[in-house]
Structures are given as structure tokens and as C-alpha cells.
DNA sequence: GTATCATTTGATTTATTTTTTAAAAAAATA
DNA sequence: TATTTTTTTAAAAAATAAATCAAATGATAC
């Protein structure tokens, strides 16, 4: 619960703003991905289930409004629009196409955080929905299930701790001791056994894992997407 | 639920604005009461449970911010603040003291309605259906019967409370304490026994439950499909 | 006041999870 | 290719949590 981060997608064509916002959100304990336009954003949302999308209205290609309108028809990830002008008409339009909130540029970073927390709190009934999707796997850390194809597999408490940790830092190599510390296991082979068990649940072919891989002599790493 | 109107309290010291907003909200099928200052508002909230309070920040006496801060400590009726200035600092302050949203004056009436709907949609407690069917089970919480195959089984009051709660959030894991708190049971085996009893009623094979499942170390979850 | 139904409780059984073991497989190294 | 090291995995054993049962107690209705 403690160390799960909400995953936010920032979509803006201005590199400077994107990096600034990313940096700031990182500092505030969010996991951040970025996209430079609607197409890019759309590709990313196919792979990852974000908790929130922050979207600039003015973008080359499909605008933020258009993206919102299309996207919201299919998925209801909350969307926060960034509008350049403070005009009511544009704000209204944003809400009408389905955005959950908007923020007028320029804004203070602090206000962005407040808005984001506000949305996340409301839309997830005070809890972040902890659902991660990659490949044909869906992991729901709240409901403690892994959906693979059409199976629903239970996640037990040890598995949850490990997944939580690894999902929070995809691509990071976790040494055995690190995983062991997490769950108070230090018995040599125990970790291996849990990893095997997890692989059976999240991998299509557990013998040659795609996501939860071994780094020989180092530990394990979880690759999503 | 068709003819239920949300009851909104408008708090503003400007008669003109109060009446305008009231008129507009009336047209949009809201039930509206008004108050001219924080004291007045506070008195009214003692008597009526509003669905939403729309509050001007600038008021003689206690300001909207102060009202919000005090009020939110006790009751969590949603509050929408009206700010005269568009300055980020004031907007931030509003959210920090607990307001659910703010709107910068001047605003278009239409935008107010959107904002209000937005808040109400998010906060309104979903009214649960009184008759739920899933699999070959039908649960009638009004008549207090469970129909399984061609049996008609009684639901007692404890069972009703639990079913009501769980049916309202299918897929959510309820911790034992949560269930216990609901019905003031906290004795060691009591929950288990009730769960066993419920399973006998709603499950085809109570020993390997399909709907009312155990999440070891966590609690219970009800899956309906 | 008795009958009926609901709840509590401890003892016991059952089920699930975790750890250990050990052998096989895979990878690295000589 | 042979040897060593590390990882994988199945299966057994141990630990822990939950389910069940039955008897006792309590509550409510008639």
C-alpha cells in the first residue's frame, strides 16, 4: 500500500514543459510516463493502464479535446486537461468531451499536484486503483487477482508484496536479499520457489519468461511492456 | 430515483448573484436553498442535509475558506467554492482547506452546472439494487429471500447487512474487521460462521465457493457476474 | 414462558501458504 | 568437452489461517 505509485501519463508537445512536469511529479512520488502527441499517447495507453492522463489541449495532430473525446468512449482513465486560454468556453468544452478536470496555464506546480490528488481521490473512491496491464496480463493488486487470458488467478500476500515492489520499478534488478528483506525470508531457495510460482501465473511460457526474468548472479527483474 | 432532486445550498452575500444562480439551478432541476453568509449557512446545514454547498469565498463575517475548513472537519457534504480572483494561490488554498472544487468568477452558468454534476456524480453513493441475479441465484434484499434453483431461503438481518454491503462493491475485498464493524460482531469465530451460513445459501458448492470467496489473510470478496 | 431463531465459542478438521529438500536443468567457466 | 556454479522445479514437511461442527448462550416472537 505504502509504496505503490500512481502512474501518470503526461502528454505535451513542448519538451520543456513535459520534462518539468515529469520532474515535479516524480518528486511527489508519482510514476510518470510521457508522450509528445495524441498518437504517441494512444500507443502507450494500449500497453499500460494509467491512473491518470494529463493532456495539453494544444497539440499538433489530434488535439487534446479530440483525444479526450475519442479516448473516453472506450476507457475511463481520468483525464486532466491543460488549457492555454482561461476562457470559459474552452473550459466547458473540455468538460463536455469528458475530461475530469482542467487547469489553466500558467499554473503553479503545487496546484497541479492538488488537482491530481483531487481527481485520483475521487475517481478511485479514495484509493488508487492498482491495476497494471501488459501483454495479455492484467494484475489487480487491490483485488488480488491476475487475469491471464480468461483465467482469474489469486495472488497471495507474499506474491502481492513482491509484485508491488517490482511493478513499482519496472526494469530494476532486484537482488535476492532485497526481495527476501521485503518479506522476511532469507532461506536461499525460497525466493526461487516464489518466483517460479509467480511465473506460472503471469507468464505465457513460464519456462522462458518474458516478464519476470532472471539475471544470473544478480537477481530478478520485471519487464512490463 | 427518477424524481429525486439534489438539494443545493447557495451561499453568497450578493443578492443578485444568489437569485440568478438559484433561478438557473432551479431550471436545471435542482432543489435550491440560499444563505447570505457563513452563519446563516451553518444554521441551515444543521436542519437540512444538503447534497452540495456552493460557497462564495468573499463574504462578510467568516469567509468561504474558513467555513469550508470548519465544516469539512465535521461533515463531508461536497463544497464548490466561487473565487473572485483567478489567482492560483487562492485556488490552491480552497482545495487545501477541503473544498471539492472551485470555479472562478465570472463563469458561465453552464459551466456551473457541469461542475455541479461532476461533483454529484462522483460523490453520490450508488443506490443499490434491491434484487440481484447472478448465476442461478436471485437475491431479493427487499423481501429478504434468496432463490436458489427452486428453493426459497430466508435472509436474516445480519445476512442482509453483509450482502447489502458486499453487493454494493462486488469484487472488493472486505476485511473481517470491516464486516464485523458493520454489524457489531467481533467475536472470534462469528464472521466465519456467518460466512459459512451465507455460502450454504448462495453457493452451489459451499465448500468451493464461486461467489463468496476467501482471500486468505485479507478477508472476503463477493464476485457476481 | 416456551419455542424459535441467531450468535458465540472452543475443539477439531480442512485448506492454503511457506519453507525445505533434493534432484535436474541451465549457464558459466576452465 | 568437462567441471563447477547457479537456477529451476517438484514434492514433502511445517506452519498458519480458515471452515466446520456442536453445544451453550442469548434474543425475539408468539
Can you tell me about this structure?
2 copies of one chain form a homodimer. By secondary structure, chain A is an alpha/beta fold. Helices cover 41% and strands 22% of the residues of chain A. Chain A has 8 helices and 12 strands. Chain A has a 5-stranded parallel sheet, with helices on both faces. The first copy, chain A, is elongated, with a radius of gyration of 19 Å. Mean pLDDT of chain A is 81; it is low at 124-128. Chains A and B meet through helix 4 and helix 5 of A and helix 4 and helix 5 of B.
Task: Provide key terms for this protein.
homodimer, 225 residues, alpha/beta, Rossmann fold, Arc Repressor Mutant, subunit A, 5-stranded parallel beta sheet, 41% helix, DNA-binding
**How many DSSP-defined strands of chain A?**
12
Helicity of chain A, as a percent range: 40-55%
The parts of chain A where pLDDT drops under 50 for at least 5 residues are: 124-128
- Which two chains share the most extensive interface? A-B, 24 and 28 residues
CATH fold category name of the largest domain in chain A: Rossmann fold
Number of helices of chain A: 8
Going across the major beta sheet of chain A, what is the strand order?
Answer: 2-1-3-4-5
Q: Give the strand content of chain A.
A: 15-25%
The oligomeric state of the chains shown is homodimer
CATH superfamily of the largest domain in chain A: Response regulator
Q: How many domains make up the coordinates of chain A? A: 2
- CATH class term of the largest domain in chain A: Alpha Beta
Average residue-wise pLDDT of chain A: 81
Q: Separation of termini of chain A?
A: 23 Å
Order of helices and strands of chain A: EHEHEHEHEHEEEEHEHHEE
The major pleated sheet of chain A works out as: 5 strands, parallel
CATH architecture descriptor name of the largest domain in chain A = 3-Layer(aba) Sandwich
Radius of gyration of chain A: 19 Å
Structural class of chain A: alpha/beta
